[in-house]
Recover the amino acids of this structure.
């Protein structure tokens, strides 16, 4: 793998979330009436059409005090904006919420002034997409990155003019980097392990890092856990952490104009 490929892989760090079975709890937001089944229409007129733009073109949404304009936008993005959540916090998403794109123009009645963009967008989604949601707090599997018996990390030397710049290479079974902050190292571990990694080390500096581990699975425990402890003096401890999710109970494709 080339350096550019390694850097590109590093810059896009995505940690999928693994849900575990727990009893769901009603959140504060739901108790305040955030459920879209209670949202009333706030836009007096609305035009919703399938976009004719390329699916590869970007989408935009502009929400003003009395109007909304969306161009080539995915419905899931509208839901994220309406309920102030990230894409990994939404559960029960049908595929068309991301495969279909819409052009939307909506204007509000004067009586809706002051309601706020999120509430008005919730009303539009409830009225035209028949969206009904509720919030749940669930436990997700994470790792906590902590110092073991003693950190073996080498603090990076001062960066003089002739010193190499910060470089991080992430390859299969290997991480090599100069001037790596611990927060960055935690994000790389998140990608390798497929879970969020929370930095609990309180290590404040930048470090030169060399870490290698076997990629062939030889046990139920990821080999990187042992390598981190033996080579870096750190440990990755599995934990459960509560996280709030937005659960889609019902949603429909809007009828064509």
């Amino acid at each position: 793998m080339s350096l550019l490929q390694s850097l590109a892989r590093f810059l896009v760090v995505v940690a999928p979330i693994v849900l575990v079975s727990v009893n769901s709890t009603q959140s504060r937001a739901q108790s305040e009436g955030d459920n879209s089944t209670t949202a009333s229409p706030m836009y007096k007129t609305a035009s919703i059409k399938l976009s004719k733009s390329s699916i590869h073109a970007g989408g935009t949404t502009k929400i003003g005090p009395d109007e909304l304009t969306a161009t080539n936008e995915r419905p899931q993005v509208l839901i994220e904006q309406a309920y102030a959540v990230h894409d990994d916090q939404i559960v029960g998403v049908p595929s068309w919420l991301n495969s279909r794109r819409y052009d939307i123009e909506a204007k509000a009645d004067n009586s809706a002034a002051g309601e706020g963009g999120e509430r008005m967008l919730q009303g539009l989604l409830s009225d035209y997409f028949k969206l009904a949601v509720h919030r749940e707090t669930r436990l997700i599997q994470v790792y906590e990155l902590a110092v073991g018996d003693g950190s073996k990390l080498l603090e990076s030397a001062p960066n003089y003019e002739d010193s190499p710049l910060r470089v991080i290479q992430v390859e299969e079974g290997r991480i090599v980097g100069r001037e790596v902050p611990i927060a960055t190292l935690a994000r790389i571990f998140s990608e390798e392990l497929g879970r969020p990694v929370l930095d609990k080390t309180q290590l404040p500096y930048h470090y030169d890092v060399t870490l290698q581990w076997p990629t062939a699975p030889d046990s139920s425990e990821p080999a990187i856990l042992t390598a981190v402890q033996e080579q870096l003096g750190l440990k990755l401890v599995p934990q459960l952490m509560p996280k709030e999710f937005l659960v889609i109970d019902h949603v429909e494709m809007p009828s064509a104009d």
User: Anything to note?
Assistant: Residues 25-138+244-250 form one domain. The longest strand covers residues 234-250.
